[in-house]
Write a structure and sequence with these properties.
alpha/beta; 6 strands; two-stranded parallel ribbon; four-stranded mixed beta sheet; about 10% strand; globular; Phenylalanine Hydroxylase; 12 helices
Length: about 260
Amino acid sequence: MPKSTECRAKIPDPQGFIAYDRDEDAVWHDLMARQMPEVQRHMSRPYLEGLAKLDLPTLRVPQCPDLSQRLRDLTGWRVEPVPALIPFGTFFAMLADRAFPAASFIRKRKHFDYIEEPDIFHEIFGHAPLLTDPRFAAFSQAIGKAGLLADKQDYAWLIRLYWFSVEFGLTRENGVIKGLGSGLASSVSELSWAVTAPDPERRDFDVIDILRTPYRIDILQPLYFVIPDLDQLFQAAERDLLADVAKARSLGLFTPKYPAKVA
């Protein structure tokens, strides 16, 4: 987490359940109430179908053991609470083991509109719906397996494929741009920006181009990749991703489309 964060990890009991208080449950409820109309309007069918399968509670923060039980029946995945941001190596190892890491805390009311570090609303409301789909689950696992074989110097290259697809990917349905990624599903401001605003650039999905594209986590993205046919994404899981990373490294990074971050 950023050094200035006010968020504190919640510790699960031996069965994996976390005691959230009334204020935290209320934040979850209000986040869902605000976001549901947006996702119904702008998110793609795979996400919406997954959200319906999960049938998330609206009045309280979901519990990872309950969610894991549903995901195991659908795709063999589970959700495990983690304290906060975890190292790339740990993240890849968990994905390879079909375990999704979910930050155990939920944002404070004063950070309702934006929080830099991912909280449980982003992790559960954003990520878990796609993990109900065996194809998306297999893609995430493939990223994890590639990460286990990668050198540490390649982590930042490989994660870009995850960032521009599972986190902030777009797709087309009947010619209309729709949100696909979890970072869009869990953000009111970014979802409409990514799908409808004239400002961001939208490029066709290309694995090598994605691996060469730098990003920042703390701004509205200036660039998105559009996957016209989701089979292209699923086929990427069958590629030699480490060879793709090596090719991308040899070509070098594209010039960033965002301003440098002020320290």
